[in-house]
Every structure is written in structure tokens, then in C-alpha cells.
Design goal:
Layout (H helix, E strand, L loop, with lengths): L2 H11 L6 E2 L7 H14 L1 E5 L8 H12 L2 E6 L2 E5 L18
Parallel strand pairs: 1-2
Antiparallel strand pairs: 2-4, 3-4
């Protein structure tokens, strides 16, 4: 992902609320499935990371990105933003991106 694309996605993600929350159980298969579904329908997703002392937020975000085949856009504090384009999603010219709907 190029710097300009990442900057545009960061700007678009600014107004989003976290869709997926990592709880005390950590990265469970259910959490990965939930994040995968959110990425499939929205493409750009914010994830609120739990307060686990054993791992850094960037490491958790990278693990989530690897598990869902997505890209980490940014990590600020304990909130990560992930992006994965869905080529199967129908798009019409002039429609807003799926994360704005």
C-alpha cells in the first residue's frame, strides 16, 4: 500500500467507530471470523484492542492483519485500523465507499 493510499484511508477512518473489540480472551477464532465478516462488508474497519500487558498493540494489529489477509492502516493507542478490498462487492460510479454507508 502506497503512502497516499494509506493517508486517504486514515482520513476516511477518522470518523469511524470501532466495529470489533478484542476482549480478555484475546485473538479467538470467533473474533477473527467477526473481523473477517466486517472487512468483507465494509473494507475499512477500526478494531479496539483489549488491555493485555503481554503484547504491544502493533503486534496484535499485525497478527489480526495476517489472520484476515488485510493491511494495517494505522495503530493509535489501543485502536487499530485495518483495510481489505473486496473485489466481489458491487460498486456503482458515484456511490460512497462501503464504510460510509
Amino acid at each position: 500500500m502506497k503512502g497516499r493510499e494509506r493517508a486517504e484511508l486514515r482520513a476516511a477512518a477518522h470518523h469511524l467507530d470501532p466495529t470489533v473489540h478484542v476482549g480478555q480472551q484475546g485473538l479467538t477464532p470467533t473474533l477473527i471470523t467477526s473481523l473477517d465478516d466486517a472487512l468483507r462488508t465494509r473494507e475499512l474497519v477500526k478494531v479496539k484492542l483489549g488491555k493485555t500487558d503481554d503484547a504491544k498493540p502493533k503486534d496484535i494489529a499485525n497478527s489480526l492483519a495476517l489472520a484476515t489477509n488485510s493491511a494495517v492502516v494505522q495503530v493509535i493507542g489501543r485502536t487499530a485500523t485495518l483495510f481489505r478490498e473486496n473485489p466481489d462487492m458491487e460498486r456503482k460510479r458515484g456511490d460512497p465507499p462501503p464504510w460510509r454507508k
